[in-house]
Specification:
The chain has 233 residues and is α+β, with helices and mostly antiparallel strands. The chain has a single domain, classed as outer membrane lipoprotein receptor (LolB), chain A (Clam), CATH 2.50.20. Helix content is 25%, strand content 49%. It contains four helices and ten strands. Strands 3-2-1-10-9-8-7-6-5-4 form a ten-stranded antiparallel β-sheet, with helices on one face. The longest helix is centred in the first third of the chain and has 18 residues. The radius of gyration is 22 Å and the shape is globular.
Length: 233
């Protein structure tokens, strides 16, 4: 009887114990390996985006819809398919954003802004269960003052080790004209791949006041690498 009671106590205690969390280093290693594998499998995609800017002080707004092509090398090209609203925003905000992203998608620039140990320090701060997912939440601290790096937090899916959310501010203010910048990226599944689904950026812009830019990503068509692609028969 005593043995049986002791065994029952061990079982109950084991059921109540929370599993040990992986370390920040283990999470990051798995995240990088999973991301590299997904990039190796992704042969490109096409998608649509809708950009929207709203300025509160002057009640100005604009919207632009673009088609995006992401080729196997990782380079992005954009085609504007519709635009409406303030011409200044369309030509002096949205189009420079597209040009900057296209230039930044080249491999050398892309690697310098990826969320990797060479670019960031990481600290595990907790676990978040929301939207049907369990995520590890890590604080990210850029190792350099680079306007393309973010100081803040990332959410990493505990099953597939994909980044599902990023929140923070640029490591370096990108312009004299902006301050108090807050960025939030969200990612979701498009086929077998985790890709951007929404982006929201807000900032206080000198003279113009509070300005919010949102981006919606939709209509993904992904292309996967074929096994032994390019191999001789």
């Amino acid at each position: 009887m005593i043995v049986a009671v002791n065994l029952l106590a061990v079982v109950v205690a084991g059921q109540g114990a929370a599993p040990a969390l992986p370390t920040a280093g283990e999470i990051v290693d798995r995240m990088v390996a999973a991301d590299n594998q997904r990039l190796a499998n992704l042969a490109g995609y096409t998608s649509m985006r809708r950009y929207h800017l709203e300025n509160e002080r002057f009640h100005k707004s604009a919207q632009m819809t673009v088609r995006v092509d992401f080729d196997p090398s990782g380079t992005k090209t954009f085609e504007v398919v519709a635009e409406d609203g303030c011409k200044v925003i369309l030509h002096r905000v949205f189009r420079p954003m597209l040009e900057a992203e296209s230039a930044g998608s080249r491999k050398a620039d892309r690697e310098s802004s990826r969320i990797l140990p060479v670019n960031y320090d990481f600290r595990l701060i907790g676990v978040d269960k929301s939207d049907g997912l369990t995520n590890y939440v890590l604080e990210i601290s850029p190792k350099t003052q680079n306007k393309f790096l973010i100081r803040g937090r990332i959410w990493v899916d505990a099953k597939e080790y994909a980044i599902t959310r990023i929140e923070g501010s640029p490591a370096k203010n990108p312009s004299f004209w902006t301050r108090a910048i807050h960025i939030e990226h969200r990612y979701g599944k498009a086929g077998a791949f985790w890709l951007p689904m929404s982006n929201s950026s807000s900032a206080d812009v000198r003279i113009f006041g509070r300005t919010v830019v949102t981006i919606e990503y939709f209509d993904y068509v992904t292309r996967e690498q074929r096994p032994n692609a390019g191999a001789s028969e």
